Amino acid sequence: MFPSWRMQLGEARRAIKAGQLDRACAIVEQKEIRDFRQARELSAELAGRVAQRARGRFEAGYSRAGWNDLELARHMAGSDAGIEDLRQEYRERHICRAIECLAEGRTAAAQQELAKVRERGLVDPDVRWLEHVTAKLTEAEQRLAAGGSSEARQMLDALAGSVREHTTTLDAGPIGRRIEKLAATCDEHVNIASQLHTSAERHDWHDVLGRADRMLALAPRDRVARAARRQAWHAVGLDATHVYHGGGRHHASLAMNDTAHAARPTSAPDDTMTGSAAPERIMLWVDAVGGFLVCLDDEVVLGQPTPGSSIAVPICADLSRRHAVLRRDGGSYTLDPLGDVTVDGRKLTGPMVLGNRHVIQLGSAVRMEFTRPHALSATARLVMLSGHRTEPRADTVLLMADSCLLGPKSHSHIACRRWVGDVMLFRLNGRLHCRSTMAMNVDGVAADGPMVLESGARIEGEEFAISLEEV
């Protein structure tokens, strides 16, 4: 009869054959058999198999599981023999990923990759240098975002010198190119700022609006650009139509109550549960033109329609229920990905400020174009490019801020080519109004100046008609 230790080694070999490496390791590691020569030989074999599994897990992206396998393999082998190569491969893999992230402007992701290397005790001068570069790039990006382009430029110049002087086996070229690109952005911001001041001195408010928006696309928290934009709005009289800060449906009409809205708590910028409250929307039906879904909130969720959901822009497609959030802050729009989102072919890993004519893709198929037709209005459009439909079905989605212009001009939010004049919807004192350069009536009452719009209102002129329906 075989001794019990032989029987247990036989069981360990059967476990190996069945691919149950963890079970085999546990058997071989038992105190009563691990000192036998055959057990030591099987332990060394197991170390090689577990190390091979670690490699596969690393390549598949399961770094924590792969690292656990490495530690197990080292323990089973009784030394670092054959394991150190894998440890260095792990280090090099995450360093390469960190450099890729830095080249793409994803400094937070680069920090995460380097933290994994530090966590495993694989820090060396190259890793410490990359940590320094990542921290400085992060600081420069933050200063630029706040409008401090000159300070950011000085930091980047010093960082570029560090890249040139650092002697290493690393390929720092992508980092250098990222620094150059960011430095060019700083220079562009400085140039636009100078031109903006010149336009403001000439009282060219249309140009001020355009340049302020360009500055905010480069530096979303630039107070100078925001102040210039407010000054331009004031100069052209648009400050009378306040940007609406939405807050759920409180009334059956479109006459919003300021007190009710003020009492409602505002969502935090990082509120991941945006979309849980009922969005405020209207359907705008323009005879002989089409139907338009008008979203009235500052935060608009895009996603898949589901029973009982409160998504502002439900899209009939293979998407998450809450796939992305569009946030308006003054005249700027930020797209926050909750699912798979790309803009102009670049995958988003965090919020991005949108510019005119950016193409947004949600998931694998839904494509839409974001546009800002009118320089003096923060209202934007989402035009579906991929043929998917919204629920309710609409030709275009409008993200209404201060005003919405309907008319024949190229900068109209809703193009009505055959009209001879304009109709403007706008917010005033928390209520939705309209005015027109053409003769019109609202619900049968002739308009003599701005008119308040109620839910279900009908606006009519000699050659046009518009109906409003609350969704």
Beta-strand percent range = 15-25%
Assign a percent range to the helix content.
Answer: 40-55%
The average pLDDT is 82
Strand order of the largest sheet: 8-7-10-11-12-13-2-1-22-21-18-19
Shape annotation: elongated
Distance between the termini: 82 Å
Give me the number of helical elements: 12
Q: Indicate the radius of gyration in whole angstroms.
A: 30 Å
Main sheet: strands, sense, barrel: 12 strands, mixed
How many distinct beta strands? 22
Structural class: alpha+beta
User: What are the segments in which pLDDT stays under 50 over at least 5 consecutive residues?
Assistant: 238-253, 255-275
Please outline what is shown here.
By secondary structure, the chain is of the alpha+beta class. It has helices at 4-17, 21-28, 37-59, 63-77, 84-103, 107-119, 125-145, 149-165, 173-201, 205-218, 223-236, 258-263, and strands at residues 281-286, 290-295, 299-303, 313-314, 324-329, 332-337, 341-343, 346-347, 352-353, 358-362, 366-371, 380-384, 396-399, 403-407, 414-415, 423-428, 431-436, 440-442, 445-446, 451-452, 458-461, 465-470.
Describe the structure.
The protein has a 12-stranded mixed beta sheet with strand order 8-7-10-11-12-13-2-1-22-21-18-19, with no helix packed on it. A 5-stranded mixed beta sheet has the order 4-3-5-6-9. It has a 5-stranded mixed beta sheet with strand order 15-14-16-17-20, with no helix packed on it. It is 41% helix and 20% strand. It is elongated. By secondary structure, the protein is α+β, with helices and mostly antiparallel strands.
